[in-house]
Design goal:
There is one protein chain. This protein is of the alpha+beta class and about 110 residues long. It has one domain. Strand 3 and strand 4 form a beta hairpin.
Length: about 110
């Protein structure tokens, strides 16, 4: 599979912006991802990564990392981008899919 690195970087940045914009809106999947992990992970995890045992949603979204990109045609494999928290503490991801024009099409929480 040939991957355009510049396009991966561009889409990763677009995805992060879209995820942060979705927080607190009617798009419940980003809200669910944040609230689930606030409930499930102990204060030590947040302290290690954020310097506080009680982070807010913005802080949590600031540390999500690209886990993988996949899908699309066999040439690019960059239709879907999955983001998660550091240290493999969860099986859940925020998945961002892109349309044919390379713009964010959908954001969902997946496991």
């Amino acid at each position: 599979m040939v991957v355009n690195v510049d396009e991966v970087v561009r889409r990763e940045k677009l995805a992060i912006v879209a995820i942060k914009r979705a927080m607190g809106t009617e798009d419940g999947d980003v809200n669910l991802f944040v609230s689930h992990h606030l409930d499930e992970l102990d204060g030590e995890y947040w302290l290690k990564h954020l310097g506080t045992e009680s982070p807010d949603a913005t802080q949590i979204l600031d540390i999500i990392r690209l886990r993988s990109h996949w899908g699309g045609d066999e040439i690019d494999g960059i239709k879907n981008f999955d983001f998660t928290l550091p240290d493999d503490v969860t099986d859940y991801v925020i998945s961002v899919s892109f349309d044919e024009a390379g713009e964010v099409d959908e954001i969902s929480m997946e496991s």
